[in-house]
Amino acid sequence: MRRILVTGMSGTGKSSALEGLLLLGFRTIDTDEGDWTEWSDAEGGYVWREERIAELLAGEDGPCMYVAGTVSNQGRFYDRFDAVVLLSAPANVLLTRIRRRTTNPYGKTARQREFVLRDLAEVEPLIRRTCTHEIDAAQPLADVVAQLAELGRDASPRSSSVGANSTAKPRTSRIAQTTTKKEGIVPERSPEIEQVLRDTLDAMVRSDADEIGRRTSRDGCVLSIGSDPGEWAEGHDQIVRLFRESTPEGEFGVRVGLDDVKAFREGSVGWAAGHGYFEMEGRRVPVRLTAVLHQETGDWKAVQTHASIGVPNEQMLDPMFQGGG
Fold it and tell me: Cα(162)–Cα(2) distance, rounded to whole angstroms?
């Protein structure tokens, strides 16, 4: 029997997804109902009754079982699930759903909505680091249910893929790698981010500023640094302007190429470094490229980029000491 945990912030539709899965013949357990949880003063909230959950997950017979819930001690049971699926959606979607729903009173007060936003900022990133798959819960409920059902029908344990047409994105093929703080979270190589960097540079070659804008985060912290002392762009609009000026059709008429790149990720954060070149008027100059990316609603967005031309130390230092006594 496969066991799948469906987790996520309030308003992502966990209970509604379970109702859809139940209609498809799967076994479902909503731990927000019944006596699956108990209050913990130490945690400042409800936690799973660990003996009950352990007994539930010990069963071997029956159809795939989906368990829904978001509690602080759920990580202790990750190694007993075949998949841990995070349902995620933007804050405005969550607040709208919470305001409209009639089956759950939580989130109707301003104070509770503050808690929702706090959890979205602080708790969801922690779950994202340890989940095996993430599904965009802003899409129609039927699509969410279909992607969850596909995971339930997959006979391979802890699968890292859920089908070519699914948007449930695999996070890691081994749940146990990220379950304990003592072991730590190990960064992993990310071919996905490497392809994002290649696609971004291809957009520069095509002078496609709109595509560059889509691949750049709109967070206020974003930064892009070039080789020239004046190439320091902060904010989405400034960065797009800098890239636009650097395209073959831009003011500087520069073509950028990528020779090699290595990228890694840890949870929703990724970073990459590579070697490439600037080409202008038929002349190529080697360049080093680095980038930091953040995963936003399933897509990798650049939050910091840096491109620079390497200068030998002796060439850089000589002018500094010219005229020295």
Answer: 14
